[in-house]
Amino acid sequence: MIRKYIFGSPFQTDAVVCDIPCSQGDVPHMKQENGENLSFSCQLGSADEVYGLGENVRGINKRGWRYCSCCVDEPNHTEDRQSLYAAHNFLVVRGQTCFGIFVDTPGVVTFDIGYTHLDEMTITLVYPDAAIYVFEGMCVLDIVKEFRTLIGRSYIPPKWAFGFQQSRWGYKTEEDIYRVVKMHRENHLPLDSIYLDIDYMERYKDFTVDRERMPHFEKMVQDLKEDHVHVVPIIDAGVKVEEGYAVYEEGIENGYFCKEEDGKEFTAGVWPGRVHFPDVLNPEARKWFGEQYRVLLDMGVDGFWNDMNEPSIFYAQDRLDSVIDQIAALKGRNLNLETFEQFMGAVRSLSDNREDYQKFYHQTPEGRMSHDRVHNLFGYYMTRAAGEAFERLCPDRRILMFSRSSYVGMHRYGGIWMGDNKSWWQHMLLNYKMQPSLNMVGFLYTGGDIGGFGADVTEDLLIRWMQMALFMPLMRNHSAMGTRQQEVYRFDNQKILRDTLHVRYGLLPYLYSEFMKAALGDEMYFKPLSFLYTEDAYAPQVEDQLLAGDSVMTAPVFVQNGKGRYVYLPEEMAMIRMRSLDDYDTDRYPAGHHYIEAGLNETLLFVRPDKMLIMSDGGEYTEDVHTDHMKVFAFVKTNAVYEWYDDDGMGKKYDDPEHMTKITVAADGTYTCEGRNIRLTVELL
Ligand code: GLC
């Protein structure tokens, strides 16, 4: 049951794709407060859980903190933050009653979930214009499905994007790129794509290539494609201000950049120095910006990542000038606590200052709009620009696209990565916990920077992180310039990393099938235990184990020097302790709490009763993974059935029934396949 309420004149965000008639009266479950802002609150029972908010800090159960939907370039994903790069205003309360709420408004929204008062939740909107949707259902999964149906089908990437991907901010030349690929191939470390960070551009100008560093860019893209490696360049939100640069000139000529009150383009500073932001909320400007991707598509590129699109502002030009004046006035002074703080405060005030959001405007179909009012839509609309262009330019082909900033609705055009995490054990866990929350709001193609972006990784952290990421759809190792180099071939225990990568390629048929079924059916791919085992009183306490698809539960090791971990089983499960594709042992565990050993080279996988995990023999790239023969790990009590989805991985005819094969394994290990005829080696667990 979905109900919609309108407050003020909400901006049409296009988060929702279905028409729902408006209900009259009060929003159910929430009490409207008569304060300065539009706000709603409700009491929380002592056992109530609150799930959702997509990309944010802290746990899966969001209770116990205040969060703020305000997309921001925040590299410190610590517990004291309230906002990261995204605004995902959907949550579900489960307890005495079970309901979901989606606050569709592009301005800032705060969610005080048991922060001010342990037993109270208050949602406050900075601007009082919103469409509010309330969902009722028997359980969290039903509510999530209602919501997902409302917001439309999730983005589906090409199949190669489920392979392993290597990235680093610091690869500068063609030689750097060829070398990384060569090291992978020579060492039999599977690889499907390599990323270009900002250094491939000419002085950080979008849609250009630095021909000194990459004189044979097209040939490189082609050579690597022949080696089954896709080149994925970054695109930033800000367009460099530079006479003679076509994108800048066209944007100025047509009035496609965001403007200030007086009609002159708003100038911010980002990587290239001064930039203007394309007005992606203006449909014409959006179309124009999307067309720019063609330059790289024509060079053979078939994947992109959109960055700095909160949009990130190092400084606004006029604020920078005034801060420089303030600081100059302090020259020669004896700075004490207050004056030094003033000095630091002035510098800190430069970046991502919300006052600057009020200084520029978008020309939207609903008229001129201050950026502040629609702030949370920028990353979404930048990615929409690209997605709509791909639909026009290559309608039958999937293009890889994911973004840093997002809002609900963007999930139809691309995935996301979780921004600038650090090489910290706790960030590996944080990225793991975000997965189900992101699935709730439609983002299925997701993953964090493996090994951590900032700070120096250690070998054991990278190994554990790779094991944790085995089921993450986006499996990309990415790191920042100046940090320890963390390509998998740089470490002594290359064998463990190689074996882990081969396990990933073994898992691909299952992973892809589960991802696709989740995308096509508006379901979650990663689920917390409590969503499935709804009657289990302990399940809500478990936030470091997730169900990946329908058959498997994962339980990675998240601590330094961990040689095993506690695992909670809500029902009897079979375990595979996986060291490599052909080196593993298996066991069965009854429901309950267990301490299970897992050496550094071991990943624990659990298979649910009457379910199975299908695995290929691996491969060095996705096209090398063959599915005419597969191994099946089946935990059969009476009869295990698996619906296996597969397609060509490039086209868009998703709904063809030919893609489904039904595999049935009986208790004695005999099997049947309806659909494709595959040869299976069954291993009963
Ligand atoms: C941002 C991105 C990061 C990228 C860097 C340089 O920090 O989040 O992934 O490497 O910019 O482009």
What can you tell me about this protein's structure?
The chain is α+β, with helices and mostly antiparallel strands and 685 residues long. It has four domains: 2-151, glycosyl hydrolase (family 31) (Immunoglobulin-like, Sandwich), CATH 2.60.40.1760; 159-239 and 273-313 and 374-507, Alpha-Beta Barrel (TIM Barrel); 315-350; 511-684, Immunoglobulin-like. It is 24% helix and 28% strand. The chain has 15 helices and 41 strands. The strands form ten sheets. Strands 26-25-23-19-14-13-12-27 form an eight-stranded parallel beta sheet. Strand 7 and strand 8 form a beta hairpin. Helix 5 packs across helix 11 (378-393). The longest helix is centred in the last third of the chain and has 27 residues, at 494-520. The protein is globular. 51% of the residues are buried. The mean pLDDT is 97. The structure holds alpha-D-glucopyranose. The site of alpha-D-glucopyranose has 10 residues, from loops.
Which key phrases capture this entry?
28% strand; alpha+beta; TIM Barrel; globular; 41 strands; 685 residues; 6-stranded antiparallel β-sheet; 8-stranded parallel β-sheet
